[in-house]
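Recall that a protein's primary structure is simply its ordered list of amino acids. Everything else, from secondary elements to tertiary packing, is in principle encoded there. The following example makes that idea concrete.
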Amino acid sequence: MNFNNDCQENNNNKPFPIFPNCFVVGPTGPTGPAGSGAGSTGPTGPTGATGATGPTGATGDAGLTPIFTIGTVTTGEPGTDAAASITGEAPNFTLNFTIPAGVTGPTGDTGPTGPTGDTGPTGPTGDTGPTGDTGPTGPTGDTGPTGPTGDTGPTGPTGDTGPTGPTGDTGPTGPTGDTGPTGPTGDTGPTA
């Protein structure tokens, strides 16, 4: 005979039960039909202990190096928030910024005068203005010292021959000159 556990523990394996909760364990009967419908979901159990860390996975492929280009930079109104946006697809991206203008501060003190800059290039000559009225003649100044004699200029070309002048008076007869030497004897003439 097989008794239930309570009966065996309380009656020390006696052949007859003493307590009313003792009964004889019979053979297992056939399984009853399944109940209709699912039962209500029970409460969530406590979170289990964290499992062991798994092995490190393989290193992935190297990603593309991003290339950033500055797009628009807009000045916002004073007191507004700065903003930034990014557009494009990897690896090319464009950054756009909106930066608020600062509030105008008070006028600062006048700084010291800076050094004089270099003289700029001479500007183009302007148009000639109209001739003014002639002023009065000033007093004659003192005669200046005579300047040094300049170099003699080149001889000019010979001028045309002038007209023949009138014949002058005959001059006095000059003295007789010395007798010249006797000339050679001439050839004998023909006989008559």
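The radius of gyration is 74 Å. The first strand starts at residue 67 and ends at 76.
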